[in-house]
Amino acid sequence: MSPSTPTCTVAVAASIVLGSRVFVPARLYEQDKIVAIAERLGKTPGQVILRYPIQRGLITIPKSTNAGRIAQNIDLFDFELTDEDMATLASFENARGRACAFSNMKDHPLYPF
């Protein structure tokens, strides 16, 4: 590619409402497997859930109006999830928690994004 060739980079962002029973009927932060990971790491379940897309290289934009959770949402970079943790968290994908399943994109090489 020559220096004059324009390039385009697309960044994927992740969004989830952790406490919503509308979008996530089975609250992720209450799931036993996620709670166990959080306890082992000395983190909250919300921090574990937010770390997952970050560790996958996705832009993650946490939102809260609660001062304590805002502080927790920033404290995501002093730990890493193991490969086993990542696999456990991946097992929850599309389990009634994705508002848009992108089922027409299943053949995309980066699915499930």
3D structure, described in words:
The chain is mainly α and 113 residues long. It has one domain. It is 33% helix and 4% strand. It has four helices and two strands, in the order βααβαα. A two-stranded parallel ribbon has the order 1-2. The longest helix is centred in the middle third of the chain and has 11 residues. The chain is globular and about 50 Å long. 14% of the residues are buried.
Q: Which key phrases capture this entry?
A:
113 residues, mainly alpha, two-stranded parallel sheet, 4 helices, 2 strands, 33% helix
Topology at a glance:
Layout: E1 13-14, H1 32-41, H2 45-55, E2 59-60, H3 67-74, H4 83-90
Parallel strand pairs: 1-2
Low-confidence stretches: none
Give me the side-by-side strand order of the main sheet.
1-2
Helix content: 25-40%
Q: Which radius of gyration do the C-alpha atoms yield?
A: 16 Å
The separation of the N and C termini measures 26 Å
- H-E string: EHHEHH
Q: What is the approximate shape?
A: globular
What's this model, at a glance?
This protein has helices spanning 32-41, 45-55, 67-74, 83-90; strands at 13-14, 59-60. By secondary structure, the protein is mainly α. The protein starts with 12 loop residues before the first strand and ends in a 23-residue tail after the last helix.
